[in-house]
Amino acid sequence: MMIRSARFIKGIRGTDDIVTDGRKQIAFVGRSNVGKSSLLNALTLQNELARVGKKPGKTTEINFYLINNEFYFVDLPGYGYARTSHDEREKIRKMILWYLTRSGVESLTVALAIDSVVGLTGFDREMIQVLTAGGIPFVVIANKIDKLKPVQWQLSALQNEIPEAEIIPFSTKTKQGVDALLERLYKKNPKVNPRIPNNS
What we know:
CATH topology: Rossmann fold
Low-confidence stretches: 53-57, 193-200
Number of domains: 1
Order of helices and strands: EEHEEHEHEHEH
Structural class: alpha/beta
Oligomer: single chain
Strand order of the largest sheet: 1-3-4-2-5-6-7
Helix content: 25-40%
Shape: globular
């Protein structure tokens, strides 16, 4: 899978025509401070495509990035940052669930980013349950794998905890897992063909 172009289109907080404009969507979800922005930048080879905030919990919109003029990477807000209010965290949680289950997007694949050092959180488990129940294809990104020692033992423990999930070891620092993740996301949504950009 080759990404030839990537650009930010818009951020939304609710119903918007972009959600149902017919393009395929690959959505990235994860708790605050899991490194989603750095992950998106690593995948697209653009250091500043997604803004990496100095403080977690800053993204409160659903951000759409057009890839190869053909489909979207969708960056969902990070969830669970302790310094935001309970109401704000719940608002973000509902926004994420709305997008995943009620927004009307027709072709969706989800990449759930987790912090491999921290392990699964309650939010991660909720997301897996929602995706599994909804029949939404997804992969789990074990981010920050460069910080794990020993790596294989901890990955095996994670796989045992969520045997139903496909797990991709990933590091935004070393770029480990970039090619593997792109290929898996393509295979999870085979109608997307990012090797042939649509320039119309």
